[in-house]
Amino acid sequence: QVQLVESGGGLVQAGGSLRLSCAASGRTFSSYAMGWFRQAPGKEREFVAWISRGGGSTYYGDSVKDRFTISRDNTKSSVYLQMNSLKPEDTAVYYCAASLWATSKEAVTTTPYSYWGQGTQVTVSS
Length: 126
Hints:
Layout: E1 4-7, E2 10-13, E3 18-24, E4 33-39, E5 46-51, E6 58-60, E7 68-73, E8 78-83, E9 92-99, E10 115-116, E11 120-125
Parallel strand pairs: 2-11
Antiparallel strand pairs: 1-3, 3-8, 4-5, 4-9, 5-6, 7-8, 9-10, 9-11
C-alpha cells in the first residue's frame, strides 16, 4: 500500500515556475516507477512525465518536453516536478501516481498506475 500526497501547486503568471512535490508513505518507494499526470476541467487526464525506479530514466509528454523536469529522491520517498516557462494551458490539477511495472512505453496511460495522490491545483495566469 502506498499513499501519495502532492504539494506545491498555486497561482503563477505565465513564464513563471513552480516545483511540485509528491511524498509517499511506506518503505518500498524505490520499487515504484512514478508518474505525473494532469487534468484540466472538461478534459481527460493527460500524461506529463515518468521516472524509473532508480531515477536513471525519464520520459515526458510532448506538451511539456524541455520545460518540465521530473526527479526523485528515494531516501526521502519523494518525487518532484520542476515546471518552468509555464503557460496558461498548463493550468490543471496535477496528480502523482505510482506503478510497480510501468516502463516508459506504458507510462503514458493511467492503466499501469495503482496508486494516485489527491492532486494539487496549478493555475497559470496570462
